Amino acid sequence: MTGDVLSAAEAARLRQCEQVIAAGLDTFVEVGQALAVVRDLRLYRSEHQSFREYCQERWRLSRSYADRLISAADVVGVLAEVTPSGTEPAPVPVSEAQARPLARLLPSPGTDPVAREAGKENVRQTWTQAVSTAPRTSSGAPRVTAEHVAAVIAERSPSALEDRAPPSRRRRPLTDEFAEGVFAHGRAVTRLARLLVDDRWPSTKPRLPAGVVRDLARQRDEITTILTDLSHPDPNPLEKD
Fold this sequence. Notes:
mainly alpha; 3 domains; 10 helices; 0% strand
């Protein structure tokens, strides 16, 4: 704990942001926006030395994943803006993964207004092209994957990808992947828990397919296996990737 006391207004703002983050984390946009407020206003400082420490200790999130959520929210903010030409924007990304490649095109903070608007327009045009050229589902809806968005960026703005190492030589830390998995699992569990207090639940529960209940039991067993593994430290941690 740092001992830096927040003002009443800051404490209220922190509570508001944390309610968004904790309330099932329904949308990556709202979570990213809330995390950005906590970071930019340093609302974590009464109990944590850094934003990294806050993310890890309060939410079990890696700093890199929190930054990606913030960047993804920024991307959606750009895409949702009314364009200077007044054209109708394309549907915004529905996941952090879709928005992630576009974050590389965002203008850097402090960029002059003209260059900043040009960069934002590049984000809009890239996303519009990705949506229009994406494969279609059986219903005709675009199936936009992160890989497809990255391919469009490589075609339009290859320099944005130049600093990336070849996929075969670059691996994400397992700690990040594990933290993101726990994060996603927490979202799903919270959503299910909300259903239990819905007034329709008592009449709905008997109609649940048996397969759904079996899947839930299987997931419980898998979680138990993971927790058991975590309770037994690896005797040779340095030998694993």
